[in-house]
Amino acid sequence: GAVVSQHPSWVICKSGTSVKIECRSLDFQATTMFWYRQFPKQSLMLMATSNEGSKATYEQGVEKDKFLINHASLTLSTLTVTSAHPEDSSFYICSVRRGVRDTQYFGPGTRLTVL
Amino acid sequence: AQKVTQAQTEISVVEKEDVTLDCVYETRDTTYYLFWYKQPPSGELVFLIRRNSFDEQNEISGRYSWNFQKSTSSFNFTITASQVVDSAVYFCALITQGGSEKLVFGKGTKLTVNP
Prior knowledge:
The complex is a heterodimer of chains A (115) and B (115).
Chain A: E1 4-7, E2 10-13, E3 19-25, E4 32-38, E5 44-51, E6 57-58, E7 67-73, E8 76-81, E9 90-97, E10 105-106, E11 110-114
Parallel strand pairs in A: 2-11
Antiparallel strand pairs in A: 1-3, 3-8, 4-5, 4-9, 5-6, 7-8, 9-10, 9-11
Chain B: E1 3-5, E2 10-14, E3 19-21, E4 24-26, E5 32-39, E6 46-52, E7 59-61, E8 64-69, E9 74-79, E10 88-96, E11 104-105, E12 109-114
């Protein structure tokens, strides 16, 4: 499968600070990149879909001003959790794909803990 | 609307046993793709297989095999001679062409293989 990297793999921050998570598609240029959130023992919850050069499309209930997504290039997307609070603590996973017919590959995830 | 049901929340087996993970999907679209992903304790989702709606051939890859049956809208996954390293959460997912074009995940099945 394709290689997707995420950085950092884990982060601990104080409440009120902002945290940036990077996602890179290392094997191909990803037309679309996705950001998911996963709570313990639950399935993945899609937060937003991001296409290079355009604004991200957020799922219902996801605050776009809190979770800023920048899809700067076909191989890089960033998720910034602004003014993080303890309830934002979660496992964040990015995903990449070329097109709808193509397989979606996932990054290793970033575990965010907000104190 | 698309839906994926993984009725088995948790399965526990003893090493070398065969185990089948069930996946039932719902969609009205005629063109769709089905996937299985493995999420070990490390958290990264590992792609296992992709199947399109026009290919009902069963597939075998080592100890893994998949049974796709459109008549029952099922895409079941069997692990033969299970090993401790197979312990993980397994997700079945569906994406349709012409629909939302987003992966729809089941809730996952946690498999524990005991030595």
